[in-house]
Amino acid sequence: MSSSSVGKHAGAGSATDQPAVPEPSFAERARTLVYLGRIGSLSTLSRKQPGFPFGSVMPYGLDERGRPIFLISTMAMHTQNLQADPRASLLVTRPEASGDPLGASRLTLLGNVLPIPESVVAEARRLYLARYDNSKYWADFEDFSFYRISESRCDSNAALYVMMQPFSPSTLQRDAMNSRRGSLLSVARNS
What we know:
Elements: H1 26-36, E1 39-45, E2 53-59, E3 61-62, E4 68-73, H2 77-84, E5 87-93, E6 106-115, H3 121-131, E7 144-157, E8 165-167, H4 169-178, H5 181-185
Antiparallel strand pairs: 1-2, 1-5, 3-4, 4-7, 5-6, 6-7, 7-8
Helix pairs in contact: 1-4
């Protein structure tokens, strides 16, 4: 019997015996983080206190391109802020991150949060309610509407400050379209 470990289960072969496992791109990691997350922190520009940010806890769903969808009421201050100025950010952190929160993966999407066009509201509703079934009780109230963030910039911190990488939304969407959901789930761990 040869001393080579090639073809042996749990052998002590060298790393060169195995093909390199490709590392996911920052966009793939970001897409995974947004997919696994369910709640983010939406920051809008305060209408009552001009120049100041206004933060809100915000559950979100995802559309077919991975863009966050919100179901929000016109009575909410964040909605009133968005109606005055649609610029906003959504901070998503790694669900159930333990240990140092500054060492956990996180992503900030910056862009305009606008009402979803009537032609695609039914699909947005279906996708949102797939995540938040209980929302069916108020989704059809007159003061509630579906909104979506159209990113203009994405910033990802995939574990350490040295990993911080800005990238374009088109890269995020392209990588999302080129990847399978199962492979994205495998990169959800902290990098």
